[in-house]
Protein backbone atom coordinates (compact mmCIF):
# COMPACT_ATOMS: atom_id res chain seq x y z
CA UNK A 1 0.00 0.00 0.00
CA UNK A 2 1.37 3.39 -0.97
CA UNK A 3 1.46 5.62 2.09
CA UNK A 4 0.21 9.16 1.67
CA UNK A 5 0.75 10.13 5.28
CA UNK A 6 1.67 13.76 5.70
CA UNK A 7 4.27 14.23 8.46
CA UNK A 8 2.70 15.43 11.68
CA UNK A 9 4.49 18.51 12.94
CA UNK A 10 5.64 18.93 16.51
CA UNK A 11 2.63 21.18 17.12
CA UNK A 12 0.34 18.31 16.13
CA UNK A 13 2.19 15.50 17.91
CA UNK A 14 0.21 13.18 20.17
CA UNK A 15 2.66 13.74 23.02
CA UNK A 16 2.06 17.48 22.93
CA UNK A 17 -1.66 16.78 22.91
CA UNK A 18 -1.29 14.57 26.01
CA UNK A 19 0.70 17.30 27.74
CA UNK A 20 -2.43 19.46 27.66
CA UNK A 21 -4.18 16.91 29.88
CA UNK A 22 -3.24 15.72 33.37
CA UNK A 23 -2.49 12.18 32.20
CA UNK A 24 1.10 12.66 31.04
CA UNK A 25 2.56 10.24 33.58
CA UNK A 26 0.09 7.57 32.49
CA UNK A 27 0.74 7.99 28.77
CA UNK A 28 4.30 8.64 27.68
CA UNK A 29 3.41 7.73 24.12
CA UNK A 30 3.66 9.35 20.72
CA UNK A 31 3.36 8.35 17.05
CA UNK A 32 6.69 7.77 15.34
CA UNK A 33 7.62 8.53 11.71
CA UNK A 34 5.73 5.38 10.64
CA UNK A 35 2.64 6.64 12.50
CA UNK A 36 2.96 3.82 15.06
CA UNK A 37 2.17 4.40 18.74
CA UNK A 38 5.36 3.97 20.76
CA UNK A 39 6.59 4.77 24.28
CA UNK A 40 8.64 7.96 24.14
CA UNK A 41 11.45 6.49 26.29
CA UNK A 42 11.56 2.76 25.51
CA UNK A 43 10.08 2.87 21.96
CA UNK A 44 7.99 -0.17 22.92
CA UNK A 45 4.37 -0.65 21.79
CA UNK A 46 1.46 0.13 24.08
CA UNK A 47 1.22 -2.17 27.11
CA UNK A 48 -2.24 -2.92 28.43
CA UNK A 49 -1.10 -4.54 31.70
CA UNK A 50 0.41 -1.30 33.07
CA UNK A 51 -0.89 -1.99 36.57
CA UNK A 52 0.16 -5.59 37.03
CA UNK A 53 -2.89 -7.85 37.02
CA UNK A 54 -5.34 -5.10 38.01
CA UNK A 55 -7.81 -5.59 35.17
CA UNK A 56 -10.34 -2.91 36.06
CA UNK A 57 -7.73 -0.17 36.45
CA UNK A 58 -5.96 -1.19 33.25
CA UNK A 59 -9.32 -1.12 31.45
CA UNK A 60 -9.98 2.42 32.68
CA UNK A 61 -6.51 3.44 31.50
CA UNK A 62 -7.22 1.93 28.09
CA UNK A 63 -10.53 3.83 27.93
CA UNK A 64 -8.72 7.06 28.81
CA UNK A 65 -6.22 6.45 25.99
CA UNK A 66 -9.11 5.85 23.62
CA UNK A 67 -10.68 9.15 24.63
CA UNK A 68 -7.38 10.97 24.10
CA UNK A 69 -7.04 9.39 20.65
CA UNK A 70 -10.60 10.37 19.81
CA UNK A 71 -9.93 14.03 20.58
CA UNK A 72 -6.51 13.92 18.91
CA UNK A 73 -7.90 12.56 15.65
CA UNK A 74 -10.60 15.23 15.66
CA UNK A 75 -7.77 17.75 15.79
CA UNK A 76 -5.92 16.04 12.92
CA UNK A 77 -9.09 16.09 10.80
CA UNK A 78 -9.32 19.85 11.23
CA UNK A 79 -5.67 20.90 11.23
CA UNK A 80 -4.00 18.25 9.04
CA UNK A 81 -6.81 17.39 6.62
CA UNK A 82 -8.36 20.91 6.70
CA UNK A 83 -11.88 19.58 7.25
CA UNK A 84 -14.62 21.63 8.85
CA UNK A 85 -16.40 20.49 12.00
CA UNK A 86 -20.17 20.80 11.51
CA UNK A 87 -22.52 20.55 14.51
CA UNK A 88 -25.96 18.98 14.15
CA UNK A 89 -28.79 19.77 14.44
CA UNK A 90 -27.93 23.20 13.12
CA UNK A 91 -30.85 25.08 14.65
CA UNK A 92 -29.90 24.47 18.32
CA UNK A 93 -26.78 25.27 20.31
CA UNK A 94 -27.74 24.99 23.99
CA UNK A 95 -28.01 21.23 24.27
CA UNK A 96 -25.64 18.30 23.64
CA UNK A 97 -25.07 17.98 19.90
CA UNK A 98 -23.24 15.61 17.66
CA UNK A 99 -21.11 16.68 14.71
CA UNK A 100 -19.35 15.43 11.61
CA UNK A 101 -16.58 16.72 9.35
CA UNK A 102 -16.53 17.77 5.72
CA UNK A 103 -14.19 19.46 3.28
CA UNK A 104 -14.76 23.15 2.72
CA UNK A 105 -16.25 22.92 -0.77
CA UNK A 106 -18.31 19.77 -0.25
CA UNK A 107 -21.61 21.58 -0.85
CA UNK A 108 -20.49 24.13 -3.41
CA UNK A 109 -17.76 22.66 -5.65
CA UNK A 110 -18.98 21.66 -9.08
CA UNK A 111 -18.06 18.61 -11.15
CA UNK A 112 -16.57 16.64 -8.27
CA UNK A 113 -17.14 13.45 -6.31
CA UNK A 114 -18.22 13.50 -2.67
CA UNK A 115 -16.80 10.57 -0.71
CA UNK A 116 -18.70 9.67 2.46
CA UNK A 117 -17.00 7.58 5.18
CA UNK A 118 -19.15 5.42 7.48
CA UNK A 119 -17.44 3.23 10.08
CA UNK A 120 -18.38 0.19 12.17
CA UNK A 121 -20.33 0.45 15.42
CA UNK A 122 -18.60 0.78 18.80
CA UNK A 123 -16.34 3.37 20.39
CA UNK A 124 -15.03 4.57 17.01
CA UNK A 125 -15.71 8.22 16.39
CA UNK A 126 -15.21 10.34 13.26
CA UNK A 127 -11.82 9.67 11.66
CA UNK A 128 -11.47 6.12 13.01
CA UNK A 129 -11.95 2.73 11.41
CA UNK A 130 -10.71 0.91 14.52
CA UNK A 131 -9.35 2.20 17.83
CA UNK A 132 -7.65 -1.13 18.46
CA UNK A 133 -5.89 -0.93 15.09
CA UNK A 134 -4.70 2.63 15.83
CA UNK A 135 -3.19 1.52 19.15
CA UNK A 136 -1.59 -1.70 17.95
CA UNK A 137 -0.94 -1.08 14.24
CA UNK A 138 -0.79 2.70 13.89
CA UNK A 139 -2.69 5.58 12.34
CA UNK A 140 -2.12 4.23 8.81
CA UNK A 141 -4.30 1.24 9.58
CA UNK A 142 -6.80 2.35 12.20
CA UNK A 143 -7.55 5.95 11.26
CA UNK A 144 -9.39 7.25 8.19
CA UNK A 145 -6.76 9.92 7.52
CA UNK A 146 -4.88 8.06 4.73
CA UNK A 147 -8.24 7.46 3.04
CA UNK A 148 -9.15 11.15 3.36
CA UNK A 149 -5.77 12.17 1.96
CA UNK A 150 -6.20 9.86 -1.03
CA UNK A 151 -9.64 11.34 -1.67
CA UNK A 152 -8.42 14.93 -1.44
CA UNK A 153 -5.49 14.20 -3.76
CA UNK A 154 -7.97 12.73 -6.26
CA UNK A 155 -9.91 16.04 -6.02
CA UNK A 156 -12.84 14.47 -4.19
CA UNK A 157 -14.74 16.31 -1.50
CA UNK A 158 -15.06 14.39 1.75
CA UNK A 159 -17.74 13.92 4.40
CA UNK A 160 -16.66 12.05 7.53
CA UNK A 161 -19.66 10.80 9.48
CA UNK A 162 -19.76 10.34 13.26
CA UNK A 163 -22.47 7.68 13.68
CA UNK A 164 -21.43 6.42 17.12
CA UNK A 165 -21.55 9.80 18.86
CA UNK A 166 -25.06 9.19 20.21
CA UNK A 167 -25.03 10.09 23.91
CA UNK A 168 -23.30 12.37 26.37
CA UNK A 169 -22.64 11.18 29.91
CA UNK A 170 -22.72 14.40 31.91
CA UNK A 171 -20.72 13.09 34.89
CA UNK A 172 -18.09 11.54 32.63
CA UNK A 173 -17.86 14.75 30.63
CA UNK A 174 -17.27 16.76 33.79
CA UNK A 175 -14.47 14.40 34.86
CA UNK A 176 -12.93 14.47 31.40
CA UNK A 177 -12.99 18.22 30.96
CA UNK A 178 -11.35 18.59 34.35
CA UNK A 179 -8.47 16.47 33.11
CA UNK A 180 -8.10 18.19 29.76
CA UNK A 181 -8.14 21.79 30.97
CA UNK A 182 -4.82 23.58 31.07
CA UNK A 183 -4.18 24.92 34.56
CA UNK A 184 -1.47 25.74 37.06
CA UNK A 185 -2.80 23.49 39.79
CA UNK A 186 -0.44 21.60 42.06
CA UNK A 187 0.99 18.28 40.80
CA UNK A 188 -0.64 16.44 43.70
CA UNK A 189 -4.08 17.79 42.75
CA UNK A 190 -3.52 16.88 39.09
CA UNK A 191 -2.58 13.34 40.11
CA UNK A 192 -5.70 13.12 42.27
CA UNK A 193 -7.82 14.17 39.26
CA UNK A 194 -6.15 11.53 37.09
CA UNK A 195 -6.67 8.86 39.75
CA UNK A 196 -10.33 9.92 39.99
CA UNK A 197 -10.84 9.48 36.25
CA UNK A 198 -8.96 6.20 35.97
CA UNK A 199 -10.92 4.68 38.85
CA UNK A 200 -14.24 6.08 37.59
CA UNK A 201 -16.92 3.38 37.99
CA UNK A 202 -20.14 5.26 37.25
CA UNK A 203 -22.23 3.24 34.74
CA UNK A 204 -22.98 4.94 31.45
CA UNK A 205 -26.25 6.85 31.68
CA UNK A 206 -26.27 8.85 28.52
CA UNK A 207 -28.31 11.82 27.49
CA UNK A 208 -29.24 11.19 23.83
CA UNK A 209 -28.09 13.70 21.26
CA UNK A 210 -30.93 14.98 19.15
CA UNK A 211 -30.90 13.74 15.52
CA UNK A 212 -28.05 11.34 16.39
CA UNK A 213 -29.69 9.02 18.89
CA UNK A 214 -28.69 6.07 16.68
CA UNK A 215 -26.22 5.62 13.80
CA UNK A 216 -29.18 5.34 11.43
CA UNK A 217 -30.67 8.62 12.66
CA UNK A 218 -27.29 10.41 12.41
CA UNK A 219 -26.70 9.28 8.83
CA UNK A 220 -30.26 10.10 7.74
CA UNK A 221 -29.93 13.63 9.16
CA UNK A 222 -26.61 14.30 7.42
CA UNK A 223 -28.04 12.89 4.19
CA UNK A 224 -31.16 15.07 4.33
CA UNK A 225 -29.43 18.32 5.28
CA UNK A 226 -26.07 18.00 3.54
CA UNK A 227 -25.33 15.09 1.18
CA UNK A 228 -28.63 15.35 -0.69
CA UNK A 229 -27.99 19.05 -1.27
CA UNK A 230 -24.73 18.55 -3.15
CA UNK A 231 -26.09 19.72 -6.49
CA UNK A 232 -24.76 18.01 -9.58
CA UNK A 233 -22.32 15.83 -7.68
CA UNK A 234 -21.60 12.12 -7.74
CA UNK A 235 -21.57 10.50 -4.29
CA UNK A 236 -19.56 7.44 -3.24
CA UNK A 237 -19.63 5.63 0.11
CA UNK A 238 -17.05 3.55 1.98
CA UNK A 239 -18.79 1.60 4.73
CA UNK A 240 -17.26 -0.80 7.27
CA UNK A 241 -18.96 -3.47 9.38
CA UNK A 242 -22.22 -2.17 10.87
CA UNK A 243 -21.87 0.83 8.58
CA UNK A 244 -23.04 -1.46 5.78
CA UNK A 245 -26.28 -2.15 7.61
CA UNK A 246 -26.74 1.59 8.23
CA UNK A 247 -26.19 2.37 4.54
CA UNK A 248 -28.78 -0.22 3.47
CA UNK A 249 -31.19 1.34 5.97
CA UNK A 250 -30.60 4.72 4.31
CA UNK A 251 -31.08 3.18 0.87
CA UNK A 252 -34.49 1.83 1.88
CA UNK A 253 -35.57 5.05 3.63
CA UNK A 254 -34.38 7.42 0.88
CA UNK A 255 -34.71 5.05 -2.05
CA UNK A 256 -34.97 7.37 -5.05
CA UNK A 257 -32.61 10.03 -3.70
CA UNK A 258 -29.87 7.52 -2.92
CA UNK A 259 -30.27 5.62 -6.19
CA UNK A 260 -30.02 8.85 -8.19
CA UNK A 261 -27.06 10.42 -6.36
CA UNK A 262 -24.82 7.51 -5.27
CA UNK A 263 -22.75 5.99 -8.06
CA UNK A 264 -20.64 3.51 -6.06
CA UNK A 265 -20.59 1.86 -2.64
CA UNK A 266 -17.56 0.03 -1.24
CA UNK A 267 -18.65 -2.25 1.57
CA UNK A 268 -15.94 -3.67 3.83
CA UNK A 269 -16.75 -6.80 5.85
CA UNK A 270 -20.29 -5.50 6.06
CA UNK A 271 -23.01 -6.50 8.56
CA UNK A 272 -25.91 -5.68 6.23
CA UNK A 273 -28.58 -8.25 5.36
CA UNK A 274 -30.10 -7.79 1.92
CA UNK A 275 -32.98 -10.20 2.51
CA UNK A 276 -34.12 -8.58 5.76
CA UNK A 277 -33.46 -4.98 4.75
CA UNK A 278 -34.29 -4.78 1.04
CA UNK A 279 -36.72 -7.69 0.88
CA UNK A 280 -37.88 -8.47 -2.65
CA UNK A 281 -37.76 -4.91 -3.98
CA UNK A 282 -36.61 -5.55 -7.53
CA UNK A 283 -35.49 -1.95 -8.12
CA UNK A 284 -33.27 -1.90 -5.03
CA UNK A 285 -31.84 -5.34 -5.81
CA UNK A 286 -31.03 -4.27 -9.37
CA UNK A 287 -29.41 -1.06 -8.07
CA UNK A 288 -27.08 -2.72 -5.55
CA UNK A 289 -26.06 -5.29 -8.17
CA UNK A 290 -24.62 -2.52 -10.34
CA UNK A 291 -23.47 -0.04 -7.69
CA UNK A 292 -22.06 -2.10 -4.80
CA UNK A 293 -18.92 -4.13 -4.29
CA UNK A 294 -17.77 -5.76 -1.06
CA UNK A 295 -14.30 -6.52 0.31
CA UNK A 296 -14.40 -9.29 2.94
CA UNK A 297 -11.83 -10.72 5.35
CA UNK A 298 -10.24 -13.70 3.65
CA UNK A 299 -6.94 -15.62 3.44
CA UNK A 300 -6.99 -15.01 -0.31
CA UNK A 301 -4.92 -12.22 -1.91
CA UNK A 302 -6.50 -8.79 -2.33
CA UNK A 303 -9.23 -8.59 -4.99
CA UNK A 304 -9.53 -12.34 -5.54
CA UNK A 305 -13.14 -13.53 -5.68
CA UNK A 306 -14.11 -14.62 -2.18
CA UNK A 307 -16.22 -17.66 -1.41
CA UNK A 308 -19.27 -16.88 0.73
CA UNK A 309 -21.81 -19.12 2.42
CA UNK A 310 -24.73 -17.05 1.19
CA UNK A 311 -25.37 -16.02 -2.37
CA UNK A 312 -24.38 -12.39 -2.77
CA UNK A 313 -26.32 -9.86 -4.80
CA UNK A 314 -23.17 -8.01 -5.92
CA UNK A 315 -19.45 -8.81 -6.43
CA UNK A 316 -17.52 -9.91 -3.32
CA UNK A 317 -13.72 -10.00 -3.24
CA UNK A 318 -10.99 -10.51 -0.67
CA UNK A 319 -9.83 -7.56 1.44
CA UNK A 320 -6.36 -9.11 1.56
CA UNK A 321 -6.48 -9.72 5.32
CA UNK A 322 -8.24 -11.99 7.79
CA UNK A 323 -8.54 -9.23 10.41
CA UNK A 324 -11.75 -7.20 10.46
CA UNK A 325 -10.03 -4.13 11.94
CA UNK A 326 -7.37 -4.07 9.19
CA UNK A 327 -9.72 -4.65 6.24
CA UNK A 328 -10.27 -0.92 5.45
CA UNK A 329 -6.57 -0.09 5.18
CA UNK A 330 -5.76 -3.32 3.36
CA UNK A 331 -8.39 -2.76 0.66
CA UNK A 332 -8.03 1.02 0.31
CA UNK A 333 -6.03 1.16 -2.94
CA UNK A 334 -8.38 -1.35 -4.56
CA UNK A 335 -11.45 0.64 -3.48
CA UNK A 336 -10.20 3.84 -5.10
CA UNK A 337 -9.52 1.95 -8.35
CA UNK A 338 -13.11 0.69 -8.18
CA UNK A 339 -14.42 4.23 -7.69
CA UNK A 340 -12.43 5.51 -10.65
CA UNK A 341 -13.67 2.72 -12.91
CA UNK A 342 -17.28 3.10 -11.72
CA UNK A 343 -17.24 6.85 -12.34
CA UNK A 344 -15.81 6.38 -15.81
CA UNK A 345 -18.52 3.82 -16.62
CA UNK A 346 -21.22 6.15 -15.29
CA UNK A 347 -19.91 9.03 -17.41
CA UNK A 348 -19.82 6.82 -20.50
CA UNK A 349 -23.41 5.69 -19.93
CA UNK A 350 -24.58 9.24 -19.32
CA UNK A 351 -23.02 10.54 -22.53
CA UNK A 352 -24.22 7.55 -24.54
CA UNK A 353 -27.82 8.43 -23.60
CA UNK A 354 -27.54 11.93 -25.06
CA UNK A 355 -28.87 12.02 -28.66
CA UNK A 356 -26.06 12.68 -31.09
CA UNK A 357 -26.74 15.73 -33.26
CA UNK A 358 -26.17 14.88 -36.92
CA UNK A 359 -26.38 17.01 -40.06
CA UNK A 360 -29.48 15.12 -41.24
CA UNK A 361 -31.26 15.49 -37.89
CA UNK A 362 -30.52 19.23 -37.94
CA UNK A 363 -32.11 19.51 -41.41
CA UNK A 364 -35.19 17.62 -40.18
CA UNK A 365 -35.56 20.05 -37.25
CA UNK A 366 -35.28 23.04 -39.55
CA UNK A 367 -37.83 21.73 -42.04
CA UNK A 368 -40.30 20.74 -39.31
Question: Which secondary structure elements does this structure contain, and how are they paired or packed?
Answer:
Blueprint: H1 14-19, E1 29-31, E2 37-39, H2 55-79, E3 83-88, E4 98-103, E5 113-118, H3 131-137, H4 139-142, H5 145-153, E6 157-160, E7 167-168, H6 170-180, H7 187-198, E8 207-208, H8 215-225, E9 234-240, H9 242-253, H10 255-261, E10 262-268, H11 274-278, H12 282-291, E11 292-296, E12 316-318, H13 327-352, H14 359-367
Parallel strand pairs: 5-6, 5-9, 9-10, 10-11, 11-12
Antiparallel strand pairs: 1-2, 3-4, 4-6, 7-8
Helix pairs in contact: 6-7, 8-9, 9-10
What does this structure look like?
With 368 residues, the protein is of the alpha/beta class. It is 42% helix and 15% strand. The protein contains 14 helices and twelve strands. It has helices at residues 14-19, 55-79, 131-137, 139-142, 145-153, 170-180, 187-198, 215-225, 242-253, 255-261, 274-278, 282-291, 327-352, 359-367, and strands at residues 29-31, 37-39, 83-88, 98-103, 113-118, 157-160, 167-168, 207-208, 234-240, 262-268, 292-296, 316-318. It has an eight-stranded mixed beta sheet with strand order 3-4-6-5-9-10-11-12. Strands 1-2 form a two-stranded antiparallel ribbon. The longest helix is centred in the last third of the chain and has 26 residues, at 327-352. It is globular and about 60 Å long. Mean pLDDT is 82; it is low at 173-204 and 356-368.
